[in-house]
Amino acid sequence: MARKKFVCGNWKMHRTAAEARTLAREVRAAAEPLAGRVDVAVAPPFTALFAVGAELAGSRIGLGAQNLHWEAQGAFTGEVSAHMLAEAGCRYVLCGHSERRQLFGDTDEAVRKKTGAALAAGLHPIVCVGETLPERESGRTLEVVGRQVRAALSGLGPDSIGGLTVAYEPVWAIGTGKTASAAQAQEVHAAIRGILKDLAPGAADAVRILYGGSVKPDNAAELMSQPDVDGALVGGASLKAIDFTGIIQGAIR
Ligand code: 13P
């Protein structure tokens, strides 16, 4: 089944609101002409969401956030709810990015709650999974990724599963310049597709599975030519409009 490719930039903790506005303007100028054939989004820091949303208004480039809390409101100092993100103009939100899991203690259960809260607020979650280097080297990649996918999606019906995206980001490939080979990515993506078929037989073929981890203009096309690699979640290279656009072009070829 033909799935429209999806390229999302994760700006992580880069760019003030003023800087983000400039980057968003550059991304819009370069990527908007391609954004009909590929779904495109950027996820700036919380403080830049309104500024970037204003800069992208009327374009086909979507706005995303990098994290959320699962409660609608309450005494949760430092947290932001799904409804707040929706009001800020977000269509997408990352759930369970490996930096959240590794540095801020996001558990499988937290990722499940975040994913559910995002869906309930009408946001499109991008559920991130991926193994560490020791896990890969001990042959546990599919076990770890499978556990993360099943945990994040547990309790969700087929319609909900059809309304989200999964991102496979091997931890050892993030920010290291080491990309998974196209074959390594495809192997894990196919396994994730198998789990989705198990959980939601009618919806699995429509779910996009993105690859993330040192995606650059020169490796994007090969990665995205794999049958189950439906796009890219891009960190460092999304901070340069020309590189981000080069990656989007790789999705069209
Ligand atoms: P890099 O593209 O910088 O490796 O980051 C990947 C990532 O974590 C995207 O979410």
Provide a short characterization of the protein structure:
With 253 residues, the protein is α/β, with parallel strands linked by helices.
CATH superfamily: Aldolase class I
Q: What is the H/E order?
A: EHEHEHEHHEHHHEHEHEH
Oligomer: single chain
Largest sheet: 8 strands, parallel, barrel
Secondary structure blueprint with pairings:
Layout lengths: L5 E5 L6 H15 L7 E5 L5 H8 L4 E5 L16 H6 L4 E4 L2 H6 L4 H13 L3 E6 L3 H5 L3 H13 L4 H5 L2 E4 L13 H18 L8 E5 L4 H8 L6 E4 L6 H12 L1
Parallel strand pairs: 1-2, 1-8, 2-3, 3-4, 4-5, 5-6, 6-7, 7-8
Helix pairs in contact: 1-2, 1-11, 5-7, 7-9, 10-11
The protein binds 1,3-dihydroxyacetonephosphate (13P).
1,3-dihydroxyacetonephosphate binds next to β8.
Structure description:
With 253 residues, this protein is α/β, with parallel strands linked by helices. It has one domain (6-251): Aldolase class I (TIM Barrel). Helices cover 43% and strands 15% of the residues. It has helices at 17-31, 49-56, 82-87, 98-103, 108-120, 133-137, 141-153, 158-162, 182-199, 217-224, 241-252, and strands at residues 6-10, 39-43, 61-65, 92-95, 124-129, 165-168, 208-212, 231-234. Helix 1 links the parallel strand 1 (6-10) and strand 2 (39-43). Helix 1 (17-31) packs parallel to helix 2 (49-56), helix 1 runs parallel beside helix 11 and helix 5 packs across helix 7. The longest helix is centred in the C-terminal third of the chain and has 18 residues, at 182-199. The chain is globular and about 45 Å long. The protein starts with 5 loop residues before the first strand and ends with a helix. The mean pLDDT is 97. Bound molecules: 1,3-dihydroxyacetonephosphate. 1,3-dihydroxyacetonephosphate is lined by residues 10, 97, 169, 174-175, 212-215, 233-237.
